[in-house]
Amino acid sequence: MATQPDRAFEDLRNTVNEYARIVRGRWRLGLIGVGIVGSLAFWCSQYLPRQYRATTLFERRDDVVLRNLIQRNSPYSFDTLKSSIAMDMTGSRALAKAGVQLGMLPVEEFSAGGPLSDRQLRMLDGVRGRYKLGATIRLIHSSPSLDTIELCCEANDPQVARRFVVALRDLYIRDTRERISEILSGTKEFFELEVERYRRRAVAVHQELRQRFEEFPGIDPLDPGSAGSRLESLRLERDRLAQRQAELQAQIAAREQFLVSAPVMEADEVEAAGASQPPVLPGTEAAIHGRIAEVEAQIAEAMTVNRMTREHPAVKTLYRKLEGLRAARRAIRASAATTKAAQDAPADAGQPRAKVHPQWYAQRLRVELELDALRKQLEVVRPRCEEAVARAQRIEILYDELTQKGEELHSLEDKYTQDTATAVAWHQYLGQLNRILAAESEQRGTQFTLLEDPKQINHATSPRVGSVFAVCWGIGLAAAVLLVALAELLDRTFRSPGQVTRVLGVPVLECVRVIPTPRERRRRWTARLTWTPALGILLACLFVTASLAYSSLERPALHQRAIAKLDHALSKLGVPPTSLAEEHSR
Amino acid sequence: MGLMTEVMKKMREQAGQREVRALEGPSEDRPADEQVGPAETPDPRSAFVSSDDATEARASSGEVTGPPAPTTPAAPPLSPETVVWNAKDVDPAVIAFHDRCSGICEQYRSVRARLLTMNAAAARQVIAITSSVPQEGKSVTTVNLGLVMAEGGEHNILIADADFRRTSLARMLGIKGAPGLAELVRGEAELSEVLQPTPCPNLKIIPAGASAGKSYAELLGGPPARAILADFRALFHYTFLDTPPVTTVSDVSMLAPHCDGTIMVIEMRRTPEPTVQQAVRTLQTNNVKVLGCILSRHPDRPSRYYDRYYYNYYRND
User: Fold this and answer.
1) For the domain with range A224-423, which CATH number is right: 1.20.59, 3.40.50, 3.30.420, 1.10.287?
2) Which of A392, A389, A380, A390 is nearest to A248 (CA)?
3) Helical (H) or strand (E) element with A161
4) Which of A505, A511, A518 is the closest to B295 by Cβ?
5) Range A156-184 average pLDDT
6) What pLDDT, on the 0 to 100 scale, is given for residue A39?
């Protein structure tokens, strides 16, 4: 008694044997199915729409200057361009521009900018549908300043795919450069205006800060100490001048008093002169000479040691003092010459002269000359003193203002500093911008480097050879299996002894094989001579169509030549040519 | 040959002298193609071969094939007359005549063994060989089966062509077609007149003869036919009637009920199931015992090894 596994194994073996019997009996039919249907499938696969892919690789590098110029959130920043690169390169607008450039779309319809109208979209969809056009973009490498971009374009025509991918790439690069140039141009104007504006502001602040201290060079408005020092020096100068003025006035008053009292004193003085000779005045001239030497030494010290110029007030004062002394010396010398002439004159030259003592007269003349010189000095000192007083008063006012408005002045100073720095920064930007604009147009802004140009497309990307062969072989085998199954299903004849026993219920005495009579041999040979060429032709058809399908996918040029030869042969036979040539030409 | 000789001696002791003579092979060296007319010492084995390879047949004589035959009752004496068939006249499909060493011939021997096994009582039988549709191999089967059954010589075998519509036995064997079974049924000829000799003394053939305008059903269904079948049983151990197809004509329905059994010949991959089923039902309806089926033109390719084995086996013997 057979166990369950034995029965299962027996069933499996019977099933396998049954299938083997079917295969042995129907292999020709299966081969017919594979041959005919597989050939048809391979032939039809040539009509499947092909998709060809063209790929280009390029690099987009952000410019360092531009990175500083353009804000990160700006629509023209590197990051924004990165996020919108897919739309910029593969969007409808980009495809339309590429189509226009390649002559697939009318220029006049797409000359206007802005979003595409419905009509334009329909035209673009027509081109897309005609060429099965599609573009994809992939960032192979992405960093904050460098992107490696792969642009793929698929179409049912290899040339269209290649031209489209080049057009899309070039248009994107050109548009980006144009946009960057626009930005740079606009930015330059803006930068220039900003530089000018900040400079003006700085100048205004500077003027506001410095205009009150213009007459006081060297005074820092923000440094009350320096203003105080200047104030002290001005006060000293004022006091010195006032003292000098007072001295001069006193000397003038003294000499005027002398002159007023001179006629009374004349007789006394003349008598006294006869008795005792008036002293000669060589000592006075020597004193003036000593003073002149002293002043010249002071001037020399001021100009050499203190590095004062002739315009310096102290130096000017010393020079004026020197001139006064020199004038006094000349007056003394002139007086001395006059006195000597009077002494050398004859006695009858005049009565009055005889009455006045020459020494007295010389004294009086000297006093008059001194008085005249002092008056002149006073005329010089008085306005200077008044001026010094006025300047001291003004600087006192400024000093008070400086101490009272210190904060305000500091803020003005800060504003000036800030405006100056901003103007300098904008100026630097402007310099960089000018450098960029001075460069070649291809090197401006975001820089593009072409890494890989689209290659010559030799084979289709879709459908794939493996898929086509798998499907076609699958269809052929399915047809073969279907045919064999149908034949087996519809065959009502007896095919095995077991079937006879099962159907009729009578025993099978024996299965007698075919008797090899000459007629049977002839029949076999006839069958062989019929079947072998037929199956050979079928297999040849299968091989040829499979080769055509393969070459149409992997070797389009070879396939076109083969189809041309096939059409030529068909035309010689009077058979209409295949439509594959039209497919290729289309 | 030593073991075979011992087996034959034992069988001789058991079955008697006649059967021993039949089982023994030919002892003389006379060529078979020289045997014309009655032979004193018939050699059924050598008579099967054609005149072209009679020498080869003599070399392979003396074999015993098939299962041991049961003891059969003694048959009435037949005319020992034999003839030599010209191989060119015999249809190549008569494989048991042309190439008895072939595997196909062995398959017919297998049928003989089955028939002998089924007939354990060794009753004399008249077996109709029919089919459901024409051209399925009835005549070929009948002739080959008769020739194989006659091998050994212990059974008297008759082959009768009962297909009056398409007589084929005479054409296949190259013998004269009349007088035959039709004349015998009509009483126009005696049995001895219609029995035609064959190369095998225990095998006789009755061709179809000429129907002479009578309906075939009338010929086969009448009492004369039944009487003739009884005569066949009395004279022959096995009588094989080559009958028309069952579904085409009704002749076999008239004749087969008087037979002891029917063998259906079915050509594989040709005859539809329903047709065969209808034929079998027709026979069973007429109380005909279907002994079994012989599937002809079986498509399985024979093993070359076994073919070579059979051939060499017989040649060595």
Assistant:
1) 1.10.287
2) A380
3) helix A158-210
4) A511
5) 85
6) 93
* Residue B155 CB partners (closer than 8 Å, separation 6+): B69, B72, B149, B202, B236, B237, B238
Residue A508 and residue B302: Cβ atoms within 8 Å?
no
**Chain B residues touching residue A514 (CB < 8 angstroms):** 297-299
Residue A321 has pLDDT above 70, yes or no: yes
Q: What is the ipTM of this complex?
A: 0.75
| A494/B263 Cβ within 8 A | no
Residues 6+ apart with CB under 8 A from A107: A100
Option in B103, B293, B298 nearest A504 (CB): B293
CB contact under 8 A, B276 and A494: yes
Partner residue facing A513 (CB), from B104, B291, B293: B104
* Span B219-247, average pLDDT: 89
Cβ-contact A192, A426 below 8 angstroms: no
Using CA atoms, how far residue A517 sits from B33, B52, B93, B263, in Å, is: 23, 18, 6, 23
Q: Give the tens place of pLDDT for each residue, B71-81.
A: 444 555 677 78
Residue A180 Cα to chain centre, angstroms: 8
3-state secondary structure of B171: helix
Q: Do B298 and A518 touch (CB under 8 A)?
A: no
Q: Report the pLDDT averaged over residues A512-540.
A: 90
Q: Mean per-residue pLDDT for B125-133? A: 94
Chain A residues touching residue B110 (CB < 8 angstroms): 509-510
Nearest chain B Cα distance for residue A36, angstroms: 25
Residue A495 DSSP one-character state: -
The average pLDDT across A547-558 equals 86
A133-142 average pLDDT score: 90
pLDDT in tens, A448-464: 888 888 887 777 888 88
Q: What are phi and psi of A152, to 5 degrees?
A: -115, 140
**Residue whose token pair is 């001026």:** A387
Q: How far is CA A487 from CA A28, A29, A482, A535, B90, in A?
A: 12, 9, 8, 18, 38
Over pLDDT 70: what percentage of chain A? 87
Interchain CB distance below 8 Å, B293 and A515? no
**Mutation test of the interface with chain B: which of A24, A508, A509, choosing the one with the most B Cβ atoms within 10 A?**
A509
For residue B282, give both structure tokens: 């027709």
With beta carbons under 8 A apart, name residues in chain B contacting A509.
110-111, 114-115, 263, 291-294
Report the predicted TM-score, pTM, of the whole model to 2 decimal places: 0.57
CA-CA distance, B59 to A461, in Å (whole number)? Answer: 76
Per-residue pLDDT of B11-27, as tens digits, reads 445 444 433 333 333 33
Q: Which residues of B102-136 are buried (b: 16+ CB within 10 A; e: fewer)?
A: bbbbbbbbbbbbbbbeebeeeebbbbbbbbbbeeb
From B227's Cα to the closest Cα of chain A, the distance in A is: 29
What amino acid is encoded at A382 in this protein? R
B141 touches chain A (CB under 8 A): yes
CB atoms within 10 A of CB A20: 10
Phi-psi region of B137 (alpha: psi -120 to 50; beta: other; left: phi over 0): left
Domain boundaries, chain B: 35-48+66-81+99-316
HSE-CB of A273 using CA atoms within 13 angstroms: 19
Q: In the A/B pair of chains, how many CB contacts fall below 8 A?
A: 103
Fold of B35-48+66-81+99-316: Rossmann fold (3.40.50)
A534 versus B215: the higher-pLDDT residue is A534
**pLDDT tops 90 at residue B265:** yes
Q: What is the pLDDT of residues A333-354, one digit of tens each?
A: 887 777 666 666 554 444 444 4
Task: Report the helix count and the strand count for chain B, using DSSP H and E.
Answer: 15, 7
| B295 → closest Cβ in A497, A517, A519 | A497
